[in-house]
Structures are given as C-alpha cells and as structure tokens.
Design goal:
The protein is mainly α. The protein has 22 helices and no strands.
Length: about 475
C-alpha cells in the first residue's frame, strides 16, 4: 500500500503565511510594550525609595501610603474599571490612552514639589498599569493563533521584566552620576521617553477582530483584519464560530458572579492571589532594602538589584520558550518547587544570622528565576484564556484586580513589617503560601495550551461544570 503524502504548500501560500505571522508578531510586540512601561513604572520607584522619605521627612506609614504604594492603588482602580474602556472604547483605543497616562505620570512625578502632588501623579501612572494589565493580554490573545497564543501573550510579561531590568539599570547609572537629592527626579522622569514612543507606535495596530464582531458588528473591518492574520482563513466560518459562542453566553443571560462562571473566576482568583503571595512585588519594590538587611552595602545592594532584573529577564525568556511546549500547569508546578526551596532557605539564613555573604543574593536569584519561568510567564496568558469572549474583559479585569489589590496591600504594609520583624518570619510566610499554590496546581488547575478560546469556553463555562481539574486533552486534539 502506497502512503499518500500531503501536498506541500506552494511558495506563494507559504510566503503569505509568513507575512501574516510577521504582522501578528509585530502587533503583539507593539502592544506588549505597554508591559515595558508597566515594569519600568513598577520598579523605578525602588531607586527613589529612601531619598524621597528623607527629603520630605515621612514616617514609615506615610511613606508606604503616599510614595511606595500609591501607584499600586491606582493600579487597583485601573484593573477594576479597565474592562469598561476595553469593551466600550475598544482594545486599541484603550491602549493608546494608557500611553498618555504613563507620559503624564512620568513628567508629573519628576517635577513634584510635595508628597501629595507626587502621590497624585504616581496614582495616574498606576491607573495606566492597571488598565494595561486588562487590555494588552486580551488584545494579543484575540489576534494570536492557538498554537502560538502562549508565547505571544507572554511577550507582555517579557516586556514587564525587561522594563524592570531597565529601571534597575537606569536607577544605578543615574544614581552613580548624580547626587541623590536630584537623581530620583531623573530616575522617574526618564520614563517619559519610552511612553511617548509607545503612544506613537500603538496607532499602527489594527482593532481586535473579535471586538469588532461582538461589540461593533463591523463585519467588513473584522474580515479585513482576519485575512491579515491568516490569508487562508474561512472568514465566514470564523465569524460564525465567534457569533455562536457569543449567542450561547447571551442566551444564558448569566451575571458575571454566577454559577456559570464560577470555575474561571476561581482559577483567575487563585492564580492572581498566589502570584502576589509569592512575595514577588515585595522583592521588586524593596530589593535594595532587603539586601541591605542581609548586611550588604547600599551601593552593592543597588547593583545587585540589576542582577536580579537580569535573572528575571533571562528566565522569562526561558518560560516563554516552554509555555506552548510544556504548558501552563507544568511551568507553575516547576516554579512552585523553586519558590519553596529558595524562600525556605532565605528564611533560614535570616533566622540563623547567616548573612553578609553571597548566599542571600543567590537565593533571591533562584526565587526570581522560579517566578519568571512560572507565574511570571503564565499569569496574564492563563487569565486571558479561561474566560469566554462575552466576559473576557470583565474576567481579565477581575483577575488583574485581585493581583493588584494584594500587591498594593503588601507594598503598603512592608515598611512597617520590615521595621518590626526580621526577614526570617517574612520569607517563611511567603513559603507557606507557595506550598498552598503547589496544592492548587496539583488538584485544580487545568492545562489550556493549544486550545482555541471558543473550545476552552465549552469546557470551563456552564452551570454543570464541577470545581475540579478539567482535562482538555480531547479539546486539544480537536483544535
């Protein structure tokens, strides 16, 4: 029996597919630059931490509230309400407004003359961060082919950690060249440059075809974008699939917080909750202070934060390369083990006073690597996947809100915690949280890789879905 081999794609077909994939990558990178500004804005404050507290004579509580956590409270607001502009104004328009918010925040923070004005402009930047954590992952997930969705959405996280690294490097360079009394203003103000570049670039990406169909019923424009994404797509069939999934949700007429969406809501909550209860924002925001507590000098501590940022970047790239190959659940399992090992050993070092050497910086690097390859790569991808089209913006907003509420609370109380407790009990607490995350991954978290968004909806949404780990191997074979 002669086995027939499928015909090879023609050169023209192959070339058109390559061009379309190149466009998708270009759009995804552009949108993901919102993540660069997110990361830069999040980490840049670490270099201004102590100079600002000294300049304005703030108590630990006021410093935590007005300086260190104000951007995060803005982020909470942006995440909670970010679904409204994302749905009503559109993904692209919302992303454009985000760039403007970052630009205003950077300039305003740099020239602030008192803590209240400073807090206001940090709040504006925080709102931009919160809204970007809703709009950017949604946009990329809606234009990405299923088999590449993980790595393309993870570009957002890559840009976050790249922005964090650049903030640490920028802080170190500016701090080395200028006196601390003026250096912090340049540290914060330099963010205006990438914010302006991003704002201009975002005008060149098209609108999401799913948003055009489901929110504007603009079939002509949606068809044009779908053909740009995939020249060989059956546009009518693609649009019919979107409408069918949408009609099912509309006919169910279920409120967001209802039995129908309880599994994706629970999954989004737990992933976001454990992301922050790992202690990642505690490390990012207070890395210089933690390293000084480990008996390293202030300049060495500031330089070590740049090393932490580099580890974060490298292992985020590794996580991106594995997320569509190994899957979201496997990466989170690997990361949980790394979290536990590093946090337990760091806690032990503080309890036994084994400080002053290289041990704590190396263990912090292991912690960052564990986060970058797992939670860092997975969170925005996973939350954007588990909700159906009809409530995706609301679901992304919910997951982002949980993430940022806990980030803000941790950042708010940490100056007081670090002034009251040693590092031992702090890191031990985070280790217990990561043990709970490991239990969640083993017994509840489903695998979502290589499954279309509409197919995921069939398995994760409905009144009869049980709160147990869903196996999607059958769905994957059909996708």
């Amino acid at each position: 029996m002669i086995r027939k081999t499928p015909p090879r794609p023609t050169t023209a077909t192959s070339s058109s597919e390559e061009r379309s994939m190149s466009r998708i990558v270009q759009w995804s990178i552009t949108v993901a630059l919102a993540g660069f500004l997110f990361g830069f804005d999040t980490a840049v404050i670490s270099g201004a931490d102590k100079p600002i507290q000294t300049l304005w004579g703030l108590s630990d509580l006021h410093h935590g509230l007005l300086v260190m956590s104000m951007a995060l409270w803005g982020t909470v607001l942006g995440a909670i309400f970010g679904n409204w502009p994302t749905d009503h104004l559109g993904r692209r328009t919302t992303l454009l407004l985000i760039g403007i918010l970052y630009l205003v925040s950077a300039i305003g923070s740099a020239v602030a003359t008192d803590p209240w004005t400073f807090a206001f402009f940090r709040l504006i930047g925080g709102i931009g961060v919160g809204v970007s954590s809703v709009a950017a992952p949604i946009y990329i997930s809606e234009i990405a082919p299923p088999r590449y969705r993980g790595v393309l959405v993870a570009l957002y996280q890559f840009n976050i950690v790249f922005g964090i690294l650049m903030a640490f490097v920028s802080n170190y360079l500016i701090g080395s060249l200028m006196e601390s009394g003026i250096a912090w203003r340049w540290m914060l103000g330099i963010e205006a440059i990438p914010a302006l570049i991003y704002t201009v670039m975002i005008t060149r990406v098209p609108r999401s075809p799913r948003w055009l169909i489901l929110k504007r019923n603009d079939v002509e424009e949606a068809s044009r974008v779908l053909r740009m994404i995939n020249p060989n797509v059956d546009v009518d069939a693609e649009i019919a699939t979107m409408r069918t999934a949408e009609n099912e949700e509309r006919s169910a007429n279920a409120r967001f917080f209802s039995r129908r969406y309880r599994l994706p809501i629970l999954l989004a909550f737990l992933v976001a909750f454990f992301n922050q209860l790992s202690g990642i924002n505690f490390i990012i925001y207070y890395a210089p202070r933690v390293l000084e507590a480990a008996q390293l000098g202030s300049q060495v501590a500031l330089l070590s934060t740049a090393g932490i940022g580099l580890v974060n970047l490298v292992f985020t790239m590794i996580g991106m390369s594995l997320i569509d190959r190994f899957g979201r659940r496997t990466l989170l399992f690997i990361g949980s083990a790394g979290y536990l090992l590093s946090l337990v050993l760091i806690s032990r070092a503080f309890f036994t006073d084994a400080l002053g050497g290289i041990e704590v910086p190396l263990l912090l690097a292991l912690f960052i690597a564990s986060h970058a390859i797992s939670q860092g790569a997975v969170i925005w991808v996973f939350i954007a996947e588990v909700f159906p089209n009809h409530v995706r913006a609301r679901g992304q907003s919910f997951g982002s809100s949980i993430h940022w509420v806990f980030a803000a609370l941790i950042t708010l109380v940490m100056p007081w915690v670090l002034g009251t407790f040693s590092g031992g009990p702090v890191f031990a607490f985070f280790a217990v949280m990561m043990l709970l995350q490991l239990i969640f991954v083993l017994f509840l978290m489903p695998e979502t890789r290589n499954v279309s968004l509409e197919e995921l909806q069939k398995h994760l949404v409905g009144d009869n879905v049980k709160l147990r780990r869903v196996h999607l191997s059958g769905a994957r074979a059909q996708a």
